[in-house]
Amino acid sequence: MAEQILLRPGKRSLRGLSAGGPPAPGRRFAVSVRRNLAGYGFMVGAVLCFALFSWYPMIREFVMSFQGTHRDPVTRLPTTTWVGWRNYTRIWHDPTFAAAWKNTVEFSLLALLIGFAVPFVVAIVLNELRHARGYLRVLIYLPVMLPPASALLLFQYFYDPNTGLFDHLLRLMHLPTSQFVQSSGSAMVSVVIASTWMNMGGTTLIYLAALQNIPGELYEAAELDGASILGRIRHVTIPQTRLILSMMLMLQIVGTMQLFIEPFILTNGGAGPGNSTISVVNLIYQYAFNLSGSSNYNSASALGVLLMLVLGVFSALYLWISRDRDK
Question: Over the stretch 112-134, which tens digit does the pLDDT of each residue have?
Fold first, then answer.
């Protein structure tokens, strides 16, 4: 009887060890697949969408940039041949190539001076308000809810030198009128203003969310130290939102370098007076659809590869600069 009592715990522990021991590798894999089957299904769908609509076009664009397309004189079917760097040489010697890059960089710099600072200032003002904050958020975000084409057609009416609203207001104030997008000197600034008005709503709300996460004790301590409003913004607001500011800066650079729809609608085709608003993406569009010749898609692909490389360098530079900051 005593032996049975002594053996029973051992038998139970042996059973528990055999039942609760580590499963075989094949069984572990099957359990993991069953447990994560739904997640794998969603992941496969996302990977397929990225492969079909992002990765494949990028690879195809890179391949097409080294190819030339012409019609066979007998079959009249398009045939493709490898032409090496001929497409890159063609766009390099295009007289509008330098103007397109110059205008794109100019737009990006002006957008940083206007479109990057204005949403942050508006977010600070909204954060300090105590009444009607919700209505003002809706008012600020309203332009984002409009389709871009509708918003730009509205600004096209505002910029009209004969019946436009802006020139009408200038006449009422007895100020000199402006040609806005009809003049090469003011066309780019007018495009930046319209683009800022269209896109600042989402950026302002992101900044506002970041500002509301700043502890109020920091502002109270700054006030006790005698800091002014600008001092509190400099020593509290900007350091506490530095991560959001740097991320939005990078996203804005990438977005503004792909300028297309604003000058395309406001200047009736994108080039503007004296090619003052032509951008790299607009030049890609002209190569692909507007210019005559048999290798337009290939030249457009070559210019697209160059733009992708430039944006890749900006992104890599941002990641290299911020690598120590995130640690």
Answer: 888 888 888 888 888 887 777 77
Q: Tokens in use for 25?
A: 């590798």
List the one residue out of 104, 112, 119 whose CA is nearest residue 197.
Answer: 119
Distance CA 200, CA 141 (A): 8
Q: What is the phi-psi region of residue 275: left when phi exceeds 0, alpha when psi lies from -120 to 50, beta otherwise?
A: left
Amino acid identity of residue 125, one-letter, is: V
Cβ proximity of 158 and 181 under 8 Å: no
> Which residues does residue 67 pair with via DSSP β-bridges, in sequence order?
82
Distance CA 279, CA 103 (A): 6
C-beta of residue 272 within 8 angstroms of C-beta of residue 263? yes
| pLDDT score of 319 more than 50 | yes
Give the pLDDT band of residue 296 (cuts 50, 70, 90): confident
Q: Where are the beta strands (DSSP E) in the chain?
A: 67-71, 78-82
Confidence of residue 137 (pLDDT cuts 50, 70, 90): confident
Taking CB atoms within 8 Å and a gap of at least 24, the contacts of 118-125 are 118/196, 118/200, 119/200, 119/203, 119/204, 119/207, 120/207, 120/245, 122/200, 122/204, 123/204, 123/205, 123/207, 123/208, 123/211, 124/207, 124/211, 124/233, 124/237
Distance, in Å, from the CA atom of 204 to the CA atom of 199, rounded to the nearest integer, reads 9
Q: Kindly report the backbone phi and psi dihedral angles of residue 278, in degrees, each rounded to the nearest multiple of 5, phi listed first.
A: -70, 135
